[in-house]
Amino acid sequence: MSAATKLAMLAGILIVVTCNIAKAEDNPRQVFEWMKQLEGHWSLSPADQQEGGASQHPVVSPFVGTSDNAIVFSLVGARSAIHEDLLPGTAKQMATMYHCGDVECTAVEATHYCTKQNQPEFMASLDSTSSQIVFDCDMSTELCQSWDDHIHRITHELTQGGQHLKTTYSSFMNGEHNKDTIYHFDRK
Questions:
Q1: What global pTM score does this model have?
Q2: CA nearest 187: which of 95, 73, 31, 91?
Q3: CATH number of the domain within which 147 lies
Q4: Which domain holds residue 152?
Q5: Does the pLDDT of residue 185 top 80, yes or no?
């Protein structure tokens, strides 16, 4: 199958999924299907497309504008979960697992395995739209209610026909927003 054919198929899937996606609470299965379109390898966009200081970190900056894998999404567990591998092979490598909360997929959940050495848990948010999925910290968990430094929100936003991904990791500390770590990726 040619690259053009694959791209056309992906664009068709993107159109169907984004036209049919509902708020996270209305149809979690569609939210999970939206997440599946992230599958694949992504490189960090060039420096002029990055925002904030995250891409200037000494571990991250060598990847900016190269074709090296900076984030990889893999479908695992008979396609029942999505494994996000951020900055693979580096000292800042982190993983997030996304999955339906149960067989009926009544909610989309995630657990982030952070370099902060904690594991915040998330639920797909009411703020999700057809072009972005937002995961908010699950406030029923101890970490999300704590004053400890932790990732409190993850936002994935697809643009350019599914070829560009902006991912924001929002951290909280002492009960309030601390900072946003933003990465821009291009599909390989």
A1: 0.85
A2: 73
A3: 2.40.128
A4: 3-187
A5: yes
